[in-house]
UniProtKB/TrEMBL annotation:
Record-given protein name: RidA family protein
Membrane-spanning ranges: none
Coiled coil: none
Recorded superkingdom: Bacteria
Residue ranges annotated for the Endoribonuclease L-PSP/chorismate mutase-like domain, each copy included: 4-140
InterPro entries: Endoribo_LPSP/chorism_mut-like (IPR013813), RutC-like_sf (IPR035959)
One Pfam family, short name: YjgF_endoribonc
Amino acid sequence: MSIEERLRQAGIELPQAAAPAANYVPFVMENGLLHIAGQIPFQKDGSLLKGRLGENQSIEEGQAAARLCAINLMAQMKAALGSLDRVTRIVKLGVFVSSTPDFTDQPKVANGASDLMVEIFGDAGRHARSAVGVTVLPLGVPVEVDAIVAYASAF
């Protein structure tokens, strides 16, 4: 089954890949690795999820935000590679969680992104990961996720 078919089966429609909001590029392809800039939780209507874990966001809401970030990462993968079937491995996710000093469940929040990568890419979606708590993220979002992805040469 193709990755596009897995996305359809999961009820996921990839959005248009987000343009950079500052002086950077959305991705860099180098030596078979695709480095994707941090993605934030844009919803289908273009609005952003906002909040802070341990203050006004639950773990489940954080996981939903991380899942949206993962969907936006896949949109960038598709923009870079043309087809998600070129992805050979999700190498690493970096998950940044806006949280209060006493919130320590960043790994549970990060599972929102990690679980989706495994659901869509199977074993190739298993990855190394960092889950880090930070005081604040751009635009007041609760989660930001970046990625390193291995890819195959064009078909």
